[in-house]
Amino acid sequence: MNIVEHDWAWPNPDGFETRQSTLYFIVHHTDGPQNQDTNEIFAEHVKNGWNGIGYHFVIKGDEKGTIVRGRPLESIGAHALGLNYCSIGIALEGDFESSESSEVPTDAQIASLKGLLKELYTEYPNAKIIGHRDVADIVEDAGDSTACPGDTLYNMLPDIIKQVQA
Ligand SMILES: [Zn+2]
């Protein structure tokens, strides 16, 4: 699996906390353009007051479904209120909520997602794959309700999970 390392300008490079457990891989959409400059996502997250990009991985909507590393893998992310302390955040570029957008994940994005999840499983075999919207069913303090990762991608997850765990 080819993961592209990006030289992020972290506001506080020493400010990351190490995760003590990894119970979930949480799938997101970026709710933005399907192929955008990842620095824009980074800048938006800094505006939220976070220490740079909150996801551990971004899967681009480009031809190859390029996987870009965000936060260091072992650090606590900023992507799913209530479960950040025990999860890895993976975001596919795009808006996959069908009431808002006609975008669908590209085949390359889905192939990269499956490959990445398979690889993460070897390291964290007990983690469970969920969509961001599922967090509200797991913890009380999940913040505002979210459609993330959009119904189109969300409905693809059962199949993806089956294939990743096969
Ligand atoms: Zn999300």
Structure description:
The structure is a single chain. This protein is of the alpha/beta class and 166 residues long. The protein has a domain at 27-91 and 127-137: Lysozyme-like, CATH 3.40.80. It has five helices and six strands. The protein has helices spanning 38-47, 107-123, 135-138, 151-154, 157-165; strands spanning 3-4, 24-29, 57-59, 67-69, 87-92, 128-131. It has a six-stranded mixed β-sheet with strand order 1-4-3-5-2-6, covered by helices on one side. A hairpin with a 7-residue loop joins strand 3 and strand 4. Helix 2 packs across helix 5 (157-165). The longest helix has 17 residues, at 107-123. The two termini are 18 Å apart. The model has no long low-confidence stretch (mean pLDDT 96). It binds zinc ion (ZN). Residues 28, 132, 146, 148 line the site of zinc ion.
Q: What is the SS-derived class?
A: alpha/beta
> What is the name of the CATH architecture of the domain at 27-91 and 127-137?
3-Layer(aba) Sandwich
- If you compute it from the alpha carbons, what radius of gyration comes out, rounded to the nearest whole angstrom? 15 Å
Straight-line distance between termini? 18 Å
CATH homologous superfamily grouping of the domain at 27-91 and 127-137: Peptidoglycan recognition protein-like
Give the strand order of the largest sheet, numbering strands 1, 2, ... along the chain.
1-4-3-5-2-6
Number of helices: 5
Largest sheet: 6 strands, mixed
- Fold-level CATH name of the domain at 27-91 and 127-137: Lysozyme-like
Strand content: 5-15%
Range of helix content: 25-40%
Shape: globular
What is the CATH class name of the domain at 27-91 and 127-137? Alpha Beta
Bound chemical compounds? zinc ion
The unreliable regions are none
